[in-house]
Specification:
Largest sheet: 2 strands, parallel
Strand content: 5-15%
Shape: rod-shaped
Strand order of the largest sheet: 1-5
Radius of gyration: 42 Å
Length: about 625
DNA sequence: GAGGTCTGTCATCGG
DNA sequence: CACCGATGACAGACC
């Protein structure tokens, strides 16, 4: 269970390795002169337990593309593979690659060196201890000689040696010696990463579903590769490359050295393994072979893994983890800012006043800002006040008078308004306080409006002390006609009542036209007041929206800046590690690949291709696909 | 007196 | 077709 836990916690990180460096395949047949067999073959092919025959040695021979077993001792690692499969069987969250192995094999002219045996850095068998010791010695030698991971062996001997791709080889001994002690810490760290990678795991789980079905029949992974935190950070950042950038890398150069890290190749069915398992007699000249079981289908890897990489990288590195958290923080911040703006910016201050218990403020009247009929047009005979709030029964001055009616009292108005108000849509929820004191000129009965204007006038004069010069022109005109109705009443009475009045008063055509104009102007005045009020409300609402959007813009700009920094950091890290990887690779002459002449290109399907840099650009696309020599199985 | 604001009014459109 | 509400435009009053 201990291993299983570690597999589970560090699975995603190691899975990411396949996207970059594991299972690198180098085809050199087109590299040299188009005739030569692959010079470098780093293959994470169908079975990482098998390697291909060095093509440059068996050039033009039938055995040139045979697949050989790296090492019989690799079967020890099948046990861990089975354990992994068991873990995967528990559920999708556990269906993640756990161990990744890489071998860098280098054949140099015979110098009497020993044949390296594959070693498992995480093996637990007795042989593993011996192999570990050998590995330590070799690492020490390489560290001293600066040869990196390349082994020097006799030319006719096959070298297959597991090695850590990590550039910090000096830490390998510590990892090997303190593996047990580190398990505790790794598990804790892995648990944290898993908690952060839950989203990415879910996104990848679907892709791994299919892989899981086939992985049960697959051979166990060859060996586990303990990733150092640096590589973990790099691999997580490596996923940060945008899809465009990655897609550009899919096209191979005319003479590429392809490092095939197809994840499908990393998954080999047992049947394939058994059928294709040969005895390895010769090692490829250059081989960096890896084992991983995270992918089963390159198409899936290209279609599903990369999009999900955006999620995966959030938790794989502290950088992206921070980014994720900060992005979420920004989003939360924006959301809360918007909520605050909507809540505070769109609530009518009058409602706040009402909620605060400021009932002394004249609710309807003050809110109108001059929308009541107490202006110049206010009829002296009109007893209307804000508290009257009457309107025509038939719905004239509609749309807003209904609100007034519902607001019989300030408390009730406030409560009703607050209940029905919702800041969901700013445009649709403009709180129109169109309490324009639409006067209720008469009762609902048809006879109610027949009220002597003199009585009304007396009431108005007694209450409001309205001077005659303050009457509107229409009011004066109506009074000049000697009608028993005020202009206010004429404006607000119902249509049928108004027509009945016109019929009963035996008015002349000019007088009828005057009264109609008075009524029309009065209603238009109210309509204009309503319109202006709505316009002001709309403006205020839009101002609130502007503030919210400005806050969102600031948040997005901060997020963009943070993302740019993260991408830049990941790019630099990738370049640095690319130099390290290339320095560990050798050409046919045993010379390390120069970063100035070669570059690692990562495609969307999980391949990592070593391409020679061109004068123009290292990403020149030629459309020539890299041959996959591993497909040429005997 | 100029400029801004408020208000009333007209014309117009659409329901 | 009449009526009415909404709204832009204009003008006058006011500060």
């Amino acid at each position: 269970m201990r291993h299983m836990k570690k597999y589970f916690t560090e699975g995603l990180i190691q899975f990411t390795i396949l996207l970059s460096l594991i299972g690198v395949r180098v085809d050199v047949d087109t590299y040299l002169n188009g005739y030569l067999s692959p010079l470098i073959e780093i293959d994470g092919g169908p079975s990482s337990a098998f390697i291909q025959t060095p093509f440059h040695l068996y050039r033009d021979t039938g055995a040139g593309h045979q697949v050989h077993l790296k090492c019989p001792e690799l079967d020890y690692y099948f046990t861990s593979r089975r354990l992994l499969n068991e873990v995967r069987a528990l559920g999708s969250p556990a269906r993640f690659p756990t161990h990744v192995s890489a071998w860098l094999v280098h054949v140099v002219p015979d110098d009497g060196s020993d044949v390296g045996e594959p070693h498992d850095q995480s093996g637990d068998s007795g042989n593993d201890e011996v192999n570990t010791e050998d590995l330590r010695d070799e690492v020490e030698n390489e560290r001293r000689t600066g040869e990196g991971l390349v082994l020097s062996v006799s030319q006719d001997q096959t070298i297959s040696r597991p090695c850590c791709v990590d550039e910090e080889l000096s830490k390998e001994d510590t990892l090997l010696n303190q593996e047990n002690e580190d398990d505790e810490v790794k598990n804790e760290r892995g648990q944290e990463e898993i908690s952060l990678d839950s989203v990415s795991q879910l996104t990848r789980s679907s892709a791994l579903e299919q892989e899981d079905s086939s992985s049960n029949a697959l051979p166990p992974p060859i060996s586990g590769l303990e990733l150092t935190p640096q590589w973990q950070d790099f691999l997580s950042e490596f996923d940060d490359f945008d899809s465009q950038r990655i897609s550009d890398l899919e096209v191979d150069l005319p003479n590429p050295i392809s490092y095939n890290v197809s994840l499908q190749d990393a998954m080999v069915t047992r049947g394939d393994s058994t059928s294709c398992r040969p005895t390895f007699s010769r090692a490829p000249l250059f081989r960096l072979e890896s084992t991983n079981s995270s992918h089963s289908d390159p198409s899936q890897s290209s279609a599903g893994a990369l999009p999900s990489s955006l999620f995966s990288l959030m938790g794989n590195s502290s950088l992206n983890e921070t980014s994720h958290l900060q992005v979420g923080g920004y989003l939360d911040e924006a959301v809360f800012e918007q909520i605050n703006m909507m809540d505070l910016g769109t609530i009518d201050p009058r409602m706040l006043d009402c909620l605060q218990g400021d009932m002394d403020t004249p609710w309807l009247e003050d809110s109108d800002s001059g929308l009541s009929l107490e202006s110049s047009s206010r009829s002296p005979a009109s007893p209307s006040t804000s508290s009257d709030s009457f309107c025509e029964d038939e719905g004239e001055a509609t749309g807003y008078s209904s609100e007034v009616e519902s607001l019989s009292s300030k408390e009730g108005a406030c409560a009703a308004t607050y209940r029905h108000w919702s800041p969901v849509n700013l445009n649709d929820n403009i709180w129109h306080d169109h309490t324009y004191s639409v006067p209720q000129a008469q009762n609902s009965t048809s006879t109610g409006w027949v009220q002597p204007i003199k009585v009304i006038k007396q009431e108005v004069m007694s209450e409001d002390e309205v001077e005659p010069e303050e009457m509107s022109r229409d009011e004066q005109r109506v009074q000049a006609l000697g009608l028993p109705f005020s202009a206010f009443q004429i404006v607000n009475m119902r249509v049928d009542d108004f027509l009945e009045m016109l019929d009963r008063q035996n008015l002349s055509v000019s007088e009828v036209m005057l009264l109609r104009d008075v009524r029309r102007r009065g209603k238009n005045k109210l309509a204009a007041q309503n319109c202006r009020k709505r316009k002001l409300d709309a403006i205020m609402s839009l101002q609130g929206e502007v503030e919210v959007l400005a806050a969102q813009r600031e948040a997005l700009l901060r997020q963009k800046s943070h993302t740019s920094k993260a991408l830049f950091s990941a790019t630099e890290h990738f370049q640095s590690l690319s130099r390290t990887v290339l320095s560990h690779l050798r050409d046919e002459y045993g010379q390390p690949l120069s970063y100035e002449h070669y570059a690692l290109q990562c495609s969307a399907n999980g391949r990592v291709v070593v391409q020679p840099r061109t004068n123009t650009t290292s990403r020149t696309m030629t459309g020539v696909k890299t041959k996959r020599k591993k497909d040429k199985k005997p």
